[in-house]
Amino acid sequence: MGEQQKQAQPLGVWHTIKPFANGGASGMLATCVIQPIDMIKVRIQLGQGSASSVASTMLKEEGVRAFYKGLSAGLLRQATYTTARLGSFRMLTNKAIEANEGKPLPLYQKALCGLTAGAIGACFGSPADLALIRMQADATLPAAQRRHYTNAFHALSRIVADEGVLALWKGAGPTVVRAMALNMGMLASYDQSLELFRDNLGFGEIPTVVGASAISGFFASACSLPFDYVKTQIQKMQPDAEGKYPYTGSLDCAMKTLKAGGPLKFYTGFPVYCVRIAPHVMMTWIFLNQIQKAEKKIGL
């Protein structure tokens, strides 16, 4: 009896942390594949030109390694942000399904779970996200203003030393709002699409996962890009000679952007952003599905 309790306890702990561990692992694997596209996306948003010109300039002037600049911060971001958002989303939906007597959740409840999970994930991932943006934008700054971070942990330690601990959450407001929008689109649409393809249309496992992942990626992109644009502008801004920043906050940035370029300005770089976000979302779900299948085979 005592031996059975000892075995049950570790399994109970693993059952609790499994959604978080699986989410983080799948996000990190997806990031390793998608990092070069993410790098190009940031450079486009910073006004460096089109996707092809940015890629060719980076390759010619900085070499292949430039496409993976900030990878350590990207992996750290997934280890914090995606671990928290996917894990908390699954916990929230499981609790909601229990309260709903095992019946599938309506779309609005999935959307609420996605919003909440996005906010939780962003709070954990904001420091790594700030480090990632700064490392990716560093080469676009004048030589005198470059920070020369060597990796994510060097960036975080320098930010704390130079600007204080709270600076790690600089731009956290737009980061959280963006994450809520992205995860509402990504998480709710994925679960809804799974039910549609699997239960209503009778698709097999591969078409169901790929199809639901593609829909999830599209809605994640469409919902989040305006917030991502504002977040990037806030996080990379530098003070002028008088010490004044170009924007006082995310709302000021949004209003000035709207006035200067109209609503479509927020969708600058949308094709590349969609190409970056949608595959990352798709690969995250596909990796997650494969991880879960492997765990079932070994009895976890």
Automatic annotation (TrEMBL):
Keywords: Membrane, Mitochondrion, Mitochondrion inner membrane, Repeat, Transmembrane, Transmembrane helix, Transport. This is Mitochondrial dicarboxylate/tricarboxylate transporter DTC. It is a multi-pass membrane protein. Its main location: mitochondrion. It is found in: Mitochondrion inner membrane. The keyword Transmembrane applies. The keyword Transport applies. It comes from Linum trigynum. Belongs to the mitochondrial carrier (TC 2.A.29) family. Solcar repeats lie at residues 14-95, 105-196, 204-294. InterPro entries: MCP, MCP_dom_sf, MCP_transmembrane, Mito_Metabolite_Transporter. Pfam families: Mito_carr. GO terms for cellular component: mitochondrial inner membrane. GO terms for molecular function: transmembrane transporter activity.
